[in-house]
Amino acid sequence: MAEPERPRTEQRMRPAPLLFEPAEAVADTEHFFDLESIEDPRRLLDRATELTHAFRAATDRSVEFQAMAAAQLADPRRFDRMTTALIAERAQWTEDYAKKMVEFGRDLLRGDAEKHP
Question: How far apart are the first and last CA of the chain?
Fold first, then answer.
C-alpha cells in the first residue's frame, strides 16, 4: 500500500547519508549497505528505517528533477524542443505521464510547486 503524499509545504526530512557501496560489496548479492552485519534487531530496524527515508527522499527529489528537465526539453522556445512523445520514449514513460511531468516541471520552474500534491 502506498504511503500518503506529504504536502509540499511540509519541511523535507534530511535523509541519512547514502554511502556508495564498494565494488566487491555490490558483487555480493546478500550485501546491502552493511545491514546484513547488524545483529541487534533494534539497530537493524533503526538503520533500515533511515535508509528507507533516505531512498524515499532521493526518489522525490529525483522525480522533481525529471519533471524540470522534461519541462525544459518541451519548452517551445528551444530550437531543439522535444515532443512529449519523444520525452516519454526517452524516460520510458507513457505520453500521458510525460504531459503531466512537463506541467509539473513548469510549475516547479515557476516556483508553483504547491499546486501539486
Answer: 18
